[in-house]
């Protein structure tokens, strides 16, 4: 990739990250630890090496030394996240270290995707990438993100009383607005779950962790079906579809909405086979009539689905209004082409009936569980771990 192409791709804020990816591995074991040492990088084009002067080693990026790490708050798909203080401005931020475990020739493509996507995205309900900062080594790259005090998974584990229905509507509306923005920009998140939904003390909900996100286009190109954490994975992914649309995000929204309403995960499968069986128990057995093309999905022949002709959503949520059940059913359509879009959901009468969604500023505040160094209870840690694992 030419330097000018790289800068067009990522923008000035991550020029250092692009430089790492562009230049390749460090030569002859030289280290940037001592600023007086010569740093020689291998060229990807034309062969040979070139030297990087000490004053240019950080590129346009600030040093991570300008940030004081306060505590570790979580682990995303492709990196560890810290709460940190910007010593220049005193602002509290989230500092995400890019995983470089197996990389020798630059940063992982997944991290480059996340950086380039987040630099394009500016929406109140999408986590903000402020800048990229670097350490003394080529493998020390950090994303500086806007800080949110809570993630929904931690809240659900630690809340004394569950969210009210008005509060659930407030949360889901914000998720849908952020998702509508993503989908209008041809981006599929591919890992929506409660632990990837962050909330500020002002009640603003933001979608985070774009390590698995992808840009899509027409015609659809094949993508790996091994995405989305199991409990939130759409049936077409479980059955091996090679093409993905925004509908996989919408299935995950249905799982999140149901989890918030029921105060527990809706489909907590222990394996892919178990996950499919739980879906069939809840929604009935799929067939060609309700899901054209179902029988041709790659993995259908590997499963023997139980014969279950009923949709049991109403029995699962007997207290939910007709409008709420319609919305859940729309999100849980087997046929991805018939599944609700974010725009469809935002127009749902469920959000216009009582109890009306509360305003974000009126959402309750909670203790900052993520800021505590102490471990959670074994039960809570186990449940959250299952929520997070693909």
UniProtKB/TrEMBL annotation:
<keyword id="KW-0808">Transferase</keyword>
<comment type="function">
    <text>Cyclin-dependent kinase that phosphorylates the transcription factor ETS2 (in vitro) and positively controls its proteasomal degradation (in cells). Involved in the regulation of actin cytoskeleton organization through the phosphorylation of actin dynamics regulators such as PKN2. Is a negative regulator of ciliogenesis through phosphorylation of PKN2 and promotion of RhoA signaling.</text>
</comment>
<dbReference type="GO" id="GO:0007346">
    <property type="term" value="P:regulation of mitotic cell cycle"/>
</dbReference>
<keyword id="KW-0966">Cell projection</keyword>
<dbReference type="InterPro" id="IPR017441">
    <property type="entry name" value="Protein_kinase_ATP_BS"/>
</dbReference>
<dbReference type="GO" id="GO:0036064">
    <property type="term" value="C:ciliary basal body"/>
</dbReference>
<dbReference type="InterPro" id="IPR000719">
    <property type="entry name" value="Prot_kinase_dom"/>
</dbReference>
<keyword id="KW-0723">Serine/threonine-protein kinase</keyword>
<keyword id="KW-0206">Cytoskeleton</keyword>
<feature type="domain" description="Protein kinase">
    <location>
        <begin position="67"/>
        <end position="351"/>
    </location>
</feature>
<dbReference type="GO" id="GO:0030030">
    <property type="term" value="P:cell projection organization"/>
</dbReference>
<keyword id="KW-0418">Kinase</keyword>
<dbReference type="InterPro" id="IPR050108">
    <property type="entry name" value="CDK"/>
</dbReference>
<comment type="subunit">
    <text>Heterodimer with CCNQ, the interaction is required for kinase activity. Interacts with ETS2. Interacts with PRK2.</text>
</comment>
<dbReference type="InterPro" id="IPR044093">
    <property type="entry name" value="STKc_CDK10"/>
</dbReference>
<dbReference type="GO" id="GO:0005524">
    <property type="term" value="F:ATP binding"/>
</dbReference>
<keyword id="KW-0970">Cilium biogenesis/degradation</keyword>
<keyword id="KW-0547">Nucleotide-binding</keyword>
<dbReference type="GO" id="GO:0032956">
    <property type="term" value="P:regulation of actin cytoskeleton organization"/>
</dbReference>
<keyword id="KW-0067">ATP-binding</keyword>
<dbReference type="Pfam" id="PF00069">
    <property type="entry name" value="Pkinase"/>
</dbReference>
<keyword id="KW-0597">Phosphoprotein</keyword>
<dbReference type="GO" id="GO:0005634">
    <property type="term" value="C:nucleus"/>
</dbReference>
<dbReference type="GO" id="GO:0043410">
    <property type="term" value="P:positive regulation of MAPK cascade"/>
</dbReference>
<protein>
    <recommendedName>
        <fullName>Cyclin-dependent kinase 10</fullName>
    </recommendedName>
</protein>
<dbReference type="InterPro" id="IPR011009">
    <property type="entry name" value="Kinase-like_dom_sf"/>
</dbReference>
<comment type="similarity">
    <text>Belongs to the protein kinase superfamily. CMGC Ser/Thr protein kinase family. CDC2/CDKX subfamily.</text>
</comment>
<dbReference type="InterPro" id="IPR008271">
    <property type="entry name" value="Ser/Thr_kinase_AS"/>
</dbReference>
<dbReference type="GO" id="GO:1902018">
    <property type="term" value="P:negative regulation of cilium assembly"/>
</dbReference>
<dbReference type="GO" id="GO:0004693">
    <property type="term" value="F:cyclin-dependent protein serine/threonine kinase activity"/>
</dbReference>
<feature type="binding site">
    <location>
        <position position="96"/>
    </location>
    <ligand>
        <name>ATP</name>
    </ligand>
</feature>
<feature type="region of interest" description="Disordered">
    <location>
        <begin position="361"/>
        <end position="390"/>
    </location>
</feature>
<keyword id="KW-0963">Cytoplasm</keyword>
């Amino acid at each position: 990739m030419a330097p000018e192409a790289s800068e067009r791709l990522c923008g000035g804020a991550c020029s250092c990250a692009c430089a790492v990816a562009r230049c390749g591995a460090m030569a002859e074991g030289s280290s940037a630890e001592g600023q007086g040492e010569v740093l020689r990088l291998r060229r990807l084009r034309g062969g040979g090496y070139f030297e990087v002067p000490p004053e240019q080693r950080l590129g346009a990026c600030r040093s991570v030394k300008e940030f004081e790490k306060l505590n570790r708050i979580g682990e995303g798909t492709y990196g560890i996240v810290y709460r940190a203080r910007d010593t220049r401005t005193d602002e509290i931020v989230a500092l995400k270290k890019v995983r470089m475990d197996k990389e020798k020739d630059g940063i992982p493509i997944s991290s480059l995707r996340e950086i380039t996507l987040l630099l394009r995205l500016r929406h109140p309900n999408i986590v903000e990438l402020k800048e990229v900062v670097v350490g003394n080594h080529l493998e020390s790259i950090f994303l500086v993100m806007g800080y949110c005090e809570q993630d929904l998974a931690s809240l659900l584990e630690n809340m004394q009383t569950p969210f009210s229905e008005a509060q659930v509507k407030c949360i889901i509306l914000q998720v849908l607005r952020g998702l509508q923005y993503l989908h209008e920009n041809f981006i599929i998140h591919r890992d929506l779950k409660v632990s990837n939904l962050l909330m500020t003390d002002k009640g603003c909900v933001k979608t985070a962790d774009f390590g698995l996100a992808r840009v899509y286009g027409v015609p659809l190109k094949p993508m790996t079906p091994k995405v989305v954490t199991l409990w939130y994975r759409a049936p077409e992914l479980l059955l091996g579809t090679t093409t993905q649309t925004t509908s996989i995000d919408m299935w995950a929204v249905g799982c999140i909405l149901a989890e918030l309403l029921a105060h527990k995960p809706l489909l907590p499968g222990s394996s892919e086979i178990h996950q499919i069986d739980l879906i069939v128990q809840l929604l009935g057995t799929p067939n060609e009539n309700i899901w054209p093309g179902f029988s041709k999905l790659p993995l259908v022949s590997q499963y023997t689905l139980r014969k279950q002709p009923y949709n049991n959503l109403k029995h699962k949520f007997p207290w939910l209004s007709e409008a709420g059940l319609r919305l859940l059913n729309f999100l849980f359509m087997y046929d991805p082409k018939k599944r609700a879009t974010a725009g469809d959901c935002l127009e749902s009468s469920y959000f216009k009936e009582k109890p009306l969604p509360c305003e974000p500023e009126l959402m309750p505040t909670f203790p900052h569980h993520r800021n505590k160094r102490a471990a959670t209870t074994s039960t809570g840690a186990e449940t959250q771990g299952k929520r997070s694992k693909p």
